[in-house]
TrEMBL record:
Keyword Transmembrane: no
GO molecular-function terms, A-Z: small GTPase binding
One annotated GO biological process: protein import into nucleus
Domain Importin N-terminal: 28-100
Name recorded for this polypeptide: Importin-11
Compartments, as annotated in UniProt: Cytoplasm; Nucleus
Pfam families linked to this entry: IBN_N (PF03810), TPR_IPO11 (PF25758)
């Protein structure tokens, strides 16, 4: 490809490829695809995306095609690999100027330089790092930033290489540039702090961006650049200095308004500080030992004392709690049962931890976690009132819940309580004893504190096994609290139900179950949806335990449950109709399925309403395949409970099986496994082979062609048809089956071939 003659043509085609008109776009994309393997094409792209006078969209597309080409054609062994001569020219062109004015394009250029560096640096591209180090020193703000951005992406990419030879090269690189990287970070950090004190916000934002990038470089060098970082004075010096810098940045955040753009970037930088510590602890626990004391003092001070008031923010609290948790749980810091088997480093780390976590410190952490962090917030209480289903989804582990502060708090409490349970058990029990009786209904704070303490007792259930007589507590206190109907007491009603769910697999006498069933029945009539949902959560847990635990541990007695079956089933069905979100409906259906499974045929008198409702729910859930999976599971248990009477469900049941097992229908990806199980169960409970059942067997041929993990289930379905009516079934499908089996025998394992022969 002649570079000069085709540049205009390539530019024109790239312009067409940015068009919204598919008639123009598609031919342009095809032409670009053909050019991908032509010599000189990437040199043309380089000239285009580095020409700042051209349209931004065209330049953006050019840099993307260049980046994709690196992935496909840069390595020597790749088909249609670029020539060494062209690669030399491209490498030189990429680092000639760091002056890209558009942020998004600058980032893409930095990423593609890093991709080339992953393959060629340092052997084929020894000048890259020296060029970057010189470029980050220049006074021009734009060039300095772009060079620093590229420096970060190159460092990040090289740090990710895992082969021993590559690791050695990165260790050498880190040793050579670490001092410079520290100086660069200190310079930009000092500049930022001076500018923020002087009130020069615009300049401070620019300096903060450079501080952030240089800290990102240091993070990769510190965590991945040294085999034994504790032996490097500069590394340990940087980590110790980082605590002082972190305090300075936290103090800065106090004076900057929350909505300020500088505040947002400042918080990102503060979080990056904590990530350096967490990554270093994770990768080098023994090298982290000199930092244990200081890390604990820092994190506990800001999270559990007044020092953090007005400064800390949620993500910072999460990071500090993670730091404490990682130190507490770190196996490298836990001596063996036989102390003589432990290393000197482990024993030293354990001594540092023991010296820090004194009784007053542990008591303050425990009390602060429970009476401050465990309290339901105004936002949570508002969500409870305005969106009870959304609140319930978060409480039971929804996607947003797992990224929030609350789970982090609870995990830290569990880990610390487990590690220091002998010290903390009396502290928690004293908090429980101080809350006996009923609080003033007008005292919202007292109610929330009680909720928080009960939460702690539930989370620590296994640790408190020998210290709490839960049966007595249930009879004397908790049962009465479930019966308090005052609206302001609903957090306690909800929490007590949850608390029982935590303890029921730890310590709860079987004789108390009828009392608990009665309480659940009453609370399922509660006006509050959240309380009702926690009840079905407990009901689900009860039934699950009944199914899974050995008789010695938990003997399920159907006679205890049957007096409540009708009312319980009707209330669950009403709740299924009441809720609107798919996740909530799925959970209610799960509980209904468990009930049907446990009582089996004794459910028959009560399922009429559910049978009438499921076709409507199936239709409403057309766009929600996971809800349809829950419906299929419910149908499986319904068919098993109804036995031969399940034939009355065929007008709804068979079309559901037909859709779920039709591989030409997109929903089969989600529904096939449950659909096959429902198909098999339907056949096993069918009194005879109906024409409709025969008709849906047409789906089987395509299923056998899949040769998937569902083959065994398919064989069982075929056997079921044979057992129901061999002559009628084989007369209709024998020829197709034989053909399918012959094809199958060519492609499956010996075990699979045996299974086919068994069916035949």
């Amino acid at each position: 490809m002649d570079l000069n003659s085709v540049s205009t043509v390539v530019l024109e085609v790239l312009t067409q490829a940015t068009s919204q008109d598919t008639a123009v776009l598609k031919p342009a994309e095809e032409q670009l695809k053909q050019w991908e393997t032509q010599p000189g094409f990437y040199s043309v792209l380089l000239n285009i995306f580095t020409n700042h006078t051209l349209d931004v969209n065209v330049r953006w597309l050019a840099v993307l095609y260049f980046k994709n080409g690196i992935d496909r054609y840069w390595r020597r062994v790749a088909p249609h690999a670029l020539s060494e001569e062209e690669k030399t020219t491209l490498r030189a062109g990429l680092i000639t100027n760091f002056n890209e004015p558009v942020n998004q394009i600058a980032t893409q250029i930095s990423v593609l330089i890093a991709k080339v560096a992953r393959v060629d640096c340092p052997r084929q591209w020894p000048e890259l790092i020296p060029t970057l180090l010189e470029s980050v020193k220049v006074q021009d703000d734009l060039r300095q930033h772009r060079a620093l951005l590229t420096f970060y992406h190159v460092t990040k990419t090289l740090a990710s290489k895992r082969l021993a030879a590559d690791r050695k090269l990165f260790y050498d690189l880190a040793s050579g540039i670490y001092s410079f990287a520290c100086s660069l970070w200190n310079h930009h950090t000092d500049t930022f702090l001076q500018q923020i004190c002087a009130g020069d916000e615009a300049a401070a934002i620019n300096s903060l961006e450079r501080t952030l990038l240089s800290l990102k470089v240091l993070r990769k060098l510190t965590v991945h650049g040294f085999v034994e970082p504790h032996r490097n004075v500069e590394v340990m010096g940087f980590l110790h200095v980082m605590f002082e810098r972190l305090k300075q940045f936290l103090e800065c955040s106090r004076s900057i308004r929350a909505e300020n753009i500088c505040r947002d970037r400042l918080e990102k930088t503060i979080i990056l500080f904590t990530k350096v510590l967490l990554d270093f602890l994770d990768q080098h626990p023994f090298s982290f030992m000199p930092l244990i004391q200081r890390s604990l003092e820092f994190a506990v001070s800001y999270v559990f004392t007044e020092a953090g008031e007005g400064i800390v923010f949620e993500r910072f609290i999460v990071q500090c709690m993670n730091l404490i948790k990682m130190i507490v749980k770190n196996y490298a810091y836990k001596p063996s049962k036989n102390v003589e088997d432990s290393s000197a480093e482990t024993l030293e780390a354990h001594e540092i931890k023991t010296a820090f976590f004194t009784y007053p410190t542990l008591m303050e952490i425990c009390r602060r976690l429970v009476t401050h962090y465990f309290l339901l917030t105004k936002e949570e209480l508002t969500m409870w009132e305005e969106d009870p289903e959304g609140f319930t989804a978060e409480e039971t582990g929804g996607d947003s819940w797992k990224y929030s502060l609350r789970p982090c708090i609870e995990v830290l409490f569990i880990d610390i309580f487990h590690e220091y349970n002998q010290t903390l058990t009396p502290v928690l029990l004293e908090m429980v004893h101080s809350l006996q009786g009923f609080p003033d209904m007008e005292d919202t704070n007292a109610i929330l504190i009680k909720d928080a303490v009960y939460n702690a007792v539930g989370l620590a259930a296994y640790e408190l096994f020998d210290s709490v007589d839960f049966d007595q507590w249930f009879k004397n206190q908790l049962l009465a609290e479930l019966q308090v109907s005052h609206n302001r007491y609903k957090p306690i009603r909800r929490r007590v139900i949850w608390l029982i769910g935590q303890w029921i697999s730890v310590k709860f006498k079987p004789d108390l179950r009828p009392v608990l069933y009665e309480a659940i029945l009453n609370l399922l009539q509660d006006q509050d949806l959240v309380v009702k949902f926690l009840c079905i959560h407990l009901q689900s847990l009860l039934i699950f335990l009944n199914c899974c635990l050995p008789v010695d541990d938990f003997e399920f007695r159907t006679d205890q449950f049957l007096p409540y079956l009708e009312s319980m089933f009707m209330l669950l069905f009403q709740l299924l109709q009441e809720v609107t979100q798919c996740d909530t409906k799925m959970h209610v259906l799960h509980v209904l399925s468990c009930v049907i499974e446990r009582v089996n045929t004794q459910i028959q008198p009560y399922v009429g309403c559910l049978i009438q409702y499921l076709p409507l729910l199936w239709k409403q859930s057309e766009e929600h395949n996971m809800l349809r999976c829950a419906i299929l599971t419910t149908l499986i248990h319904l068919v098993q409970g109804l036995g031969a009477d399940s034939k009355n469900l065929y007008p709804f049941l068979l079309p559901v099986i037909q859709l779920s097992t039709d591989v030409s229908q997109p929903p089969h990806v989600y529904l096939l496994e449950d659909g096959l199980e429902l198909w098999l169960v339907t056949l096993e409970n069918s009194p005879c082979l109906t024409p409709e059942l025969l008709r849906i067997f047409k789906n089987m041929s395509a299923l056998l062609e899949l040769s998937s993990e569902n083959l065994k289930k398919c064989f069982k379905i075929i056997n079921a048809y044979v057992f129901l009516s061999s002559s009628e079934f084989l007369q209709m499908y024998a020829a197709d089956l034989c053909q399918s089996f012959c094809e199958l025998l060519k492609d499956i394992t010996t075990d699979g071939q045996v299974q086919v022969l068994k069916v035949m």
